[in-house]
Amino acid sequence: MKLFLPLLVLIISGMLSVNTQAQEPLKIAIVANRQAIIDSKILEQVYQRVGIRMKLLVMPGLRASQEADLGLIDSEVIRIGSYLDAHPQMIRIEPAIDTAIVAAIFKPKLKGQINSLADLKNLKKYKIGYVRGIKAVHDLIGNLPNAQSTNTPKALMKMFQADRLDIIVETVGSSNFYIKKLGLQELEQVELSRQPLYHYLHKKNRTQATLIENELKRLVSSGELLKIRARAEADFEQHEVDPF
User: Fold this and answer.
1) Count of H helices and E strands in the chain?
2) I need a surface site. Which of 44, 143, 205, 210 has the fewest CB within 10 A?
């Protein structure tokens, strides 16, 4: 009996190990802009530390929300806190891992006319562009009659560069990347909002959500998450990967 118990423990441990190894990776949607790519690299580290595999699937934000709602995918890399209100079948992982800073970007001819969101709403004769499916942006301007959307940040910046848009409203990290990439100069920028960003998992992954949340809290408490972020940002800037 004394020999049997340790052997039983060893067998069970081995089975758990095999199950973890064989577990299918969680399918995580990513809207491939600079901010989401960096945050996905951070999440890769968190997932690895708790023995969970992840697979990134690039898709537009609106489609990502639809597939997450249906449980066709397991997760979305980052969304604002209010995302949970419209998607109650998702679990918000605490704490926040990033901040969404949304800004209006425009050319010098509009300097002085835009200092706030209220100003932007009054400029009805100008064409405003944004990326479809980004809730932090859509909540601000999605209902404006002179606002139009694109599927990607790159398409948005191309339209702006070609003067097909007068103003763009986008997250700062993504817009600054393409401003630099396309060599755009003499642009004005006004911050419109700032909100924390969270990782989300579908409720079917409640067990994994608990593991990830506990590890994330540990990394924040120890200060290690800041170091992981610094490495992810440095790696992105070094390689300057075009998300599209």
Assistant:
1) 10, 8
2) 143
Q: What is the pLDDT of residues 108-142, one digit of tens each?
A: 999 999 999 999 989 999 999 999 888 899 999 99
pLDDT tier at 76 (50, 70, 90 boundaries)?
very high
pTM: 0.83
CA-based Rg of the chain, rounded to a whole angstrom?
21
Residue 104, H or E segment? strand 90-106
**DSSP secondary structure letter of residue 70:** T
Encoding tokens for residue 117? 């969101």
Alpha-carbon distance of 62 to 45, in angstroms, equals: 26
User: For the chain, what is the largest distance between any 2 Cα atoms, rounded to a whole number of angstroms?
Assistant: 85
Domains along the chain?
4-98+199-239 (3.40.190.10), 101-194 (3.40.190.10)
